[in-house]
Write a structure and sequence with these properties.
It is built from 27 helices and 22 strands. By secondary structure, the chain is of the alpha+beta class. A hairpin with a 6-residue loop joins strand 20 and strand 21. The N and C termini lie far apart (72 Å).
């Protein structure tokens, strides 16, 4: 059987603090007796699922409970005679799992599948029977959970267990909702197992299931799982934290008084809001203690403000920051920029006149529901696709944002072996903060914090990114190892040479498992490497023609020679400035050139400069391109077709297959410059042309 049994009351009696405030804890002994009382009249629900029905109706008042009754009758009759190790009838386990989900607002289909989630695995009930009685959707979810549960939790099978779990979750995210609730109930009732088995299950819960609960936004399950794992894996720290909370319980708590002040401020401002004090859970108190050292009374909880509309969140924030002293470093806006797991709230902290600092969370009631239940609060995330005529057998759209579940599924297919998948999964889930970057075509990429241009290239192009030679970040050239920030626009640059491939150094910069697996696979298949991405340093290749002077620039200094500055190569009708340099010559710069400020700081004599009526001028252009044969000849030909004379040309050594060409050109007329630059950009392999 999938559920490990224990005495359900042992842990709750030993650690009563772990009970969530306001959450009904199911009485397994009472349910066990109710489950054995025999058939229930058809005109009412069985007493055993009364709690489930009550919790479900609180979120879905119009829900049809008849399907839950039928599911319970089938589950109870199928599991009859099966007992948990604690001595309770086995039916108490699916009942407890279903109650957890009902309290979080799961829709009827999920609750029905939850009641039946062990029947196909542990009884004679078949999937065909489930489909005939409850429909394709319930059958789909039960099948997904069954595929997850069929594998034993042995160390050798563990990677494949979770690979199956990911695939099943990718087909329907509600599979993971049931799995998380199933694990929470098993963790609550873990006490009778051997300590070493408790530790092993707790470690897997910590490394995989808690991060998955975080990714799915199910904070209510995540926080309780964290506390249960904390008690098993870190008993000394847990006992210390419990002692801190117990000591605080005997002291005056400043948070209720601060909450009253907040209520008064909001009431006077005409803002309708509900203000609550939310105690921190054990792990949260432990983290705050590590961060701040000695804890004060206001550190044991936070103030939650619930309002009706998004605009009210900012109205509350304005009043708080006006009437209290805000701690600016603690402000975070997850309303305008939601977290990757659907979470939205405003976070701030305010200091009171008596010296306390209180953390405040502001959100709407809908945001609060999603913050607690995550994807469970979405109901059926596939209902829209089904209404549009989608086929239930097709791959379903990833309801997570920005599609991290689909990304996990993509790279798990490429993982070479179970061990690589297992280590990669834990590494991927350990990256608990995500950023969103924009593509130049308007799309977005979801990447872990700290991701680089390499990760963006593989996320966008897959194995085609083997030929990536650089990127533009926010319009500027950047190396492949450049770290990206939330909101950046990134454009990976791909070489036209299909034989190019990644270098081993890329692994030092790649953060996503998809990129690391793809790079490692290519390096393994090409032990001799590909065309070198860099070449030994050598002197630039130069082609020099006739040297020019000041072109058609004229300085208001009789008999002084005039030179156009090579750093900015001004041309008509640029606004220019002239300065007298050594030897009495006048050098001419564009006014926005950095050298102008330097000349003025050195006290160089400024000279007025104007352009002659003649149209010819000199300019220096740089062309950024991919390295390829005949590129210099093609660029020179494009320049010649525009009737422009090449004064000099310099080709720098290739770096990561990128080549920079610098041309000093004599133009017959400054007006041809835009057309010349377009013609150079049109040369295959050239991706940018700009003035020096």
């Amino acid at each position: 059987m999938s559920a490990e049994a224990t005495n359900p009351e042992a842990r709750s009696e030993a650690r009563p603090e772990l009970r969530r405030r306001g959450r009904t804890r199911i009485d397994l002994r009472r349910l066990g007796r109710a489950a054995l009382l025999g058939p229930t009249p058809r005109d009412r629900l069985p007493d055993a699922i009364g709690h489930v029905a009550e919790a479900h109706r609180a979120h879905h008042p119009d829900a049809d409970l008849s399907i839950l009754r039928r599911a319970y009758v089938l589950a109870e009759s199928s599991h009859r005679g099966q007992m948990r190790k604690s001595g309770e009838p086995y039916i108490t386990h699916p009942l407890a799992v279903t109650l957890i989900l009902a309290e979080l607002g799961a829709e009827t289909t999920t609750l029905t599948a939850s009641l039946l989630h062990d029947t196909v695995e542990d009884t004679d009930v078949t999937l065909d029977q489930v489909r005939a009685e409850f429909g394709d959707e319930v059958c789909f979810i039960v099948d997904g959970v069954t595929k997850v549960e069929k594998i034993d939790y042995g160390a050798a099978a563990e990677p494949e267990t979770f690979r199956k779990m990911l695939v099943a979750t990718g087909n329907d995210v509600r599979v993971m909702s049931i799995k998380l609730a199933d694990r929470l109930h098993n963790m609550r009732t873990l006490g009778v197992m051997r300590p070493e088995k408790q530790a092993r299950i707790a470690k897997v819960t910590r490394d995989v299931l808690i991060p998955l609960a975080e990714r799915l936004g199910v904070q209510a399950l995540k926080t309780e799982l964290e506390d249960l794992v904390f008690a098993i894996l870190h008993p000394e720290e847990y006992e210390h934290t419990r002692a801190l909370i117990a000591a605080h319980a005997g002291e005056a708590d400043p948070l209720p008084g601060i909450a009253d002040s907040v209520r008064t401020v909001l009431r006077d401002a005409g803002i309708t809001a509900e203000v609550q004090v939310r105690p921190r859970h054990f792990v949260s108190v432990h983290r705050v203690a590590l961060k701040r050292g000695e804890l004060r009374g206001s550190d044991f909880g936070r103030i939650l403000v619930l309002v009706g509309e998004n605009a009210d969140c900012y109205a509350v924030l304005g009043e708080l920051h006006t009437c209290f002293t805000p701690v600016i470093s603690e402000f975070k806006d997850f309303v305008a920029a939601p977290k990757f797991n659907l979470y939205q709230s405003l976070h701030t902290a305010v200091a009171t006149p008596d010296g306390y600092v209180a953390e405040v969370i502001v959100r709407t009631r809908q945001m609060h529901r999603v913050a607690e239940a995550g994807v469970i609060a979405l109901g059926n995330p596939y209902a829209t696709a089904a209404a549009d005529g989608g086929d239930g057998d097709e791959e379903r759209v990833d309801p997570t944002r920005p599609g991290w579940l689909a990304r996990l599924l993509d790279w798990q297919r490429s993982a070479p072996d179970p061990d690589a998948f297992w280590s990669g999964l834990r590494a991927e889930l350990a990256q608990d903060r995500e950023i969103t970057v924009f593509r130049t075509d308007g799309g977005t990429l979801g990447l872990p914090a700290g991701a680089t241009c390499i990760d963006a290239a593989y996320a966008q192009y897959g194995e085609t990114a083997h030929g990536c030679i650089g990127a533009r970040v926010n319009g500027r050239l950047a190396s492949l190892g450049t770290r990206l920030s939330d909101g950046d626009t990134v454009q990976p640059l791909l070489a036209q040479d299909s034989t190019s491939g990644p270098a081993a150094e890329w692994l030092e910069h790649a953060k996503t498992q998809a990129a690391r697996i793809a790079i490692s696979s290519w390096l393994r298949d090409h032990p001799d490497g590909a065309t070198p991405t860099t070449t030994p340093a050598r002197a630039p290749l130069s082609v020099v023609g006739a040297r020019g002077g000041g072109g058609n620039a004229v300085a208001d200094l009789p008999d002084a020679p005039v030179r156009l500055a090579g750093c900015c190569t001004p041309v008509p009708p640029d606004e220019v400035a002239g300065f007298v340099v050594r030897g009495g010559a006048v050098t001419v710069h564009r006014v926005e050139c950095a050298a102008v400020a330097q000349m003025r700081s050195l006290g160089r004599t400024s000279v007025a400069v104007h352009w002659r009526a003649t149209a010819d001028c000199r300019v220096t252009l740089t062309a950024e391109s991919f390295g390829r044969p005949h590129l210099l000849a093609d660029l020179t030909e494009a320049i010649a077709r525009q009737g422009v004379e090449v004064v000099s040309a310099t080709v720098e050594p290739p770096v990561e297959q990128r080549v920079r060409h610098t041309y000093t050109l004599q133009l017959p007329d400054a007006s041809v410059l835009p057309a010349l630059m377009r013609a150079m950009r049109d040369v295959p392999g050239v991706y940018d042309v700009d003035r020096a």
